[in-house]
Amino acid sequence: MNTEEKTKSNTKLYIVLIIAIVLVILAFGYLMGARYYATHFPRNTTVNGIDVSNTTADNVKLALNNNVQSYVLTIQERDGVTETVTAADVGMTYQDNGEVDELLAGYNPYAWLFDCLSTDEHTISASIQIDEDTARASLALLDCFNDALITEPEDACLVIDGGDYYIQSEVYGNRLDEDKAVEVLLEALAAGETTVDLDAQGCYIDPDITSEDAELQSQFAQLDVLLGAEITFDFEDDRIEVVNAEVIADWLVLDEDGIYSLDSDLVYDWVKTQLAYQYDTFGLTHTFTTSAGNTITLTGGDYGWCIARQDTTDKLIAAIENGEVTDMDPEYQYSAKYRGINDIGDTYVEISISQQTVWCYKDGELVVKTACVTGNPNKGNGTPSGSVWAIDAKKSPATLGTLDTMGYESPVTYWMPFTGNVGLHDADGWHSSYGGTIYQTNGSHGCVNLPLSAAELIYNAVEIGTAVIVYD
User: Fold this and answer.
1) What are the residues whose beta carbons fall under 8 Å from the beta carbon of 341, sequence distance 6 or more?
2) Using DSSP, how many helices (H) and how many strands (E) does the chain show?
3) What is the pLDDT of residue 38?
4) Taking 90 as the threshold, does the pLDDT of residue 113 lie above it?
C-alpha cells in the first residue's frame, strides 16, 4: 500500500471515528434527556393554566397549592354589586390526589424530544378542600346576607288614590333564598369556580305578581271602565252633583275571584245622603211669597220632589258599570213641576182662607183672582191649610160625593182635587155669592168653591201636578 492509499484509509477511519463519537455524544445526551424528563414535564406544557415546562411533579403540586392559596371567588349579585371570597376566608387547602403524578407518568421519557416540540394543555381537577364551618361563617358575613342592606321583594299591585289609579310595578329587591344561595356558593368553592352569578342561579326571592300579571291587567281594565264613568246630576240653580272617579273609588269592592264591583249599599247611601236628603222637597218645608208680598213658611202637604232611592241607585250603578259619561236625572217617586230651588215655580194656585181669595198664576202671570168659599171650620170641615199640595186630577164634568156614602151628590163642571176628596170646583149651583165670612156658616165640606167662570180659567191654566198653596 503506497503512501497515498494509507492517507485515504486513515482519513476514512478518522471520519468514522468522529461520527461514532458524535453518535455516542448524541446518544448520551438523548439518554440524559430521557432520564431528566422521566421526572420533569416536557417543554410547552401547562396544567390548569400554569406553565409547568421542565418542572417536576412536586414543583407542579407546589404551584397548584400556591394557585389555590391565591384563589378568589367573585360573587355577582343584583344591581351590579360584586363581592369576593378568598381561599383563606373559607379555609381552602390543596389536596394531592395523584393526578399530577399520573399526568407525568403518562409521558414516555424516551419520547421527550418529540414531546418538547409539541404543545400540551392539561386541566385536572384541582383537588381542593374547604372547611365547611369556616366557609359558612365567612359567607354569613357577606353584605348580600345583611338584613340592613336588603330590599324586600314586593308584588305589583293596583293603587287607587282618590280619582287616580295605576299599576304599581313590582320590586324585585335583593332578598336571597339564604339556604339555596349558601349551597350554590359552597358548590362553586368546592369546584374551584372563579365566578358565580347568584341571579343566574335563581337564588333570589322574586315577587309573585308582576305588572304583566293577567289578573292584574284584567283588574286594571275593569277600573278603566268603572272609574272612567262620570255621571252628572243637575238640580238647577247651580246645584250640581258629580259622580266621578274620586267618588266611585270609595264604592269599589274586590271579590275573591279578582272582580271589581260596586258596593250597592254604599251607592244607595250616597243617593240617600247626597241627593235625597239635599234635594227632596216632598212634604217638607216650603218658603212662599204670597200675592200680598208676605213670606210664609209651609210644611207638610204632598207637593215636591221625592227621589226613588233604590231605582236611582240601580240606574246609577248600571251607568257606572257601562263606563258612561253623561248627565242623569234621578228616578222619582214624586215629582214637582220645577227642578230649581223654588220647585213651586211660577204656575200655581194660591188660596188664602182668611181672605177667602184664590189666585191662579200661569208662567208668572195672574190668570184670575177670585173670591171663594172654603170649608166650614165650625162643622169640622175646614179646608186643610198651611201646606203645599199638588193637583191630583182634572175632570170635567164631574159628580162630587154619593148619597150612600157622603149624604150628598153634587154635579160640577170643573173638578180639580188636590188632597183626598178636597179640591177646587165651581159652585154656582148652590152659591150666589163668594168671599167674606160665608165659609164660617155656609162653608163647604172642605172643598174650595169657585164661581164657574173662575173655575174654568183655573181648570184651563193648571195641569195635574200643579202646586196648590193653602194658608190661613
Assistant:
1) 236, 237, 239
2) 13, 29
3) 75
4) no
